[in-house]
Specification:
Pfam family, one: SnoaL_4
Strand content: over 45%
Radius of gyration: 16 Å
CATH topology: Nuclear Transport Factor 2, Chain: A
Protein name: SnoaL-like domain-containing protein
Number of domains: 1
Order of helices and strands: EEEEEH
Oligomer: single chain
Helix content: 10-25%
Shape: elongated
Organism: Lentzea xinjiangensis
Amino acid sequence: MHAATTLLVDLDGDSATPSANVLTWLRRGAAADSPMWSDGAVGEFDPTRSSGRWRISGIAVRPAWTQGDRGVLEAGSRVVARLRPGSGVRPAHGFCPLS
């Protein structure tokens, strides 16, 4: 599960620096005592302005803290690889597309 703040934007003319704080909780299995991983991060966006419209051209995730069983992330990577053979899809640090 992911929870994020709304975008926080520092705007200066045609330059902007947007970011959002993100919390992530990942659990392998439904039982309350199954392995869990959590982290807090800052998502930093790279905006460009063209013809008066803003577009996001890149996103970086900067982990601030982590806690729990890192094996949860590794198990998620194996599941994604099985679901999309040959895709090369891997979760970013702290983020799993299956959560």
